[in-house]
Amino acid sequence: MMSPLLTVRNVTKVFSGLTAVRNLSFNVEKGSIVGLIGPNGAGKTTLFNMIAGVFAPNEGEILLGNHVLSNLKSERICHAGIGRTFQIVRPFSALSVLDNVIIGALHKHSDVKNARAAARDILNLLGLSNKAENISCNLTLQERKRLEVARALATEPKLLLLDEVMAGLRPNEAEEMISVFRNLNKERGLTILLIEHVMQAVMKLSHEICVLHHGELIAHGSPEQVVRDPLVLDCYLGKDPWT
Ligand SMILES: Nc1ncnc2c1ncn2[C@@H]1O[C@H](COP(=O)(O)OP(=O)(O)OP(=O)(O)O)[C@@H](O)[C@H]1O
Ligand SMILES: [Mg+2]
């Protein structure tokens, strides 16, 4: 029996009258990949912001293992083992690719030499080694997305939150990203919660999918179950999200 790594329990977030997330509950099992989908404005990024401690929920609880995260500051949550990428990538653009990742690695390594070695490993994993000395603002979109993942991985998270890291990539680039995440999951046991509009990627990667609509969980199950759910097709207003 697997135990949940992440527990989201009755979580609600209200922004000046707008309920962005409403009474949301689900678990992410240790070692799994869970996809989080839903139309624009469904509350997906808001949920990530609560998990990562950007702001606290108005109601409900978020736990990593047995550790209550809701109300902790983002720095503490990162330290507890949650790494995240941002929908709008935000590297330190004046720094080199390597230095950006070293900053992440310094969360786990007090020694700069060790942090640099760890950062080089991660760049290698993401196929960015040949860009290590480049200044980050000169990267292509794909490279910036990879750097965003590298920065999150450098903090050595137990749970990695990915917010649309495949958006805007060409199909072959997305394929490469998919295999990176699959390897991280299989070989290092990394647990992943990913927001993604690229449905092929969600279907290929996820063991389970959660569907949010207007802040509520309207479906939760295997990719095969969710793909056939009429409520899910409905919330995309007749546009078939799976094609
Ligand atoms: N910091 C904020 N202040 C006020 N309203 C916000 C804030 N963040 C999000 N919202 C609102 O909350 C709702 C959910 O937004 P959210 O960004 O979570 O959606 P999303 O599912 O990530 O959408 P997308 O797929 O477009 O990224 C939207 O109506 C949005 O305008
Ligand atoms: Mg979003």
Strand order of the largest sheet: 6-7-8-3-9-10
Q: Name the CATH class of the largest domain.
A: Alpha Beta
Gyration radius over CA: 18 Å
Backbone structural class: alpha/beta
CATH structural fold name of the largest domain: Rossmann fold
On the 0-100 scale, what is the average pLDDT?
Answer: 92
- What is the CATH architecture descriptor of the largest domain? 3-Layer(aba) Sandwich
By DSSP (H or I, 4+ residues per run), the number of helices equals: 9
Report on the biggest sheet: 6 strands, mixed
The tally of structural domains comes to 2
The count of strands amounts to 10
Query: What is the CATH superfamily label of the largest domain?
Result: P-loop containing nucleotide triphosphate hydrolases
Instruction: Report the bound ligands by name, code or SMILES.
Output: adenosine-5'-triphosphate, magnesium ion
Distance between the termini: 35 Å
Set out the fold topology.
Layout: E1 4-15, E2 18-29, E3 33-37, H1 44-51, E4 59-64, E5 67-68, H2 74-80, E6 82-84, H3 97-105, H4 112-125, H5 141-154, E7 159-163, H6 171-188, E8 191-195, H7 199-205, E9 208-213, E10 216-221, H8 223-227, H9 230-235
Parallel strand pairs: 3-8, 3-9, 6-7, 7-8
Antiparallel strand pairs: 1-2, 1-4, 4-5, 9-10
Helix pairs in contact: 3-4, 3-5, 4-5
The structure holds adenosine-5'-triphosphate and magnesium ion.
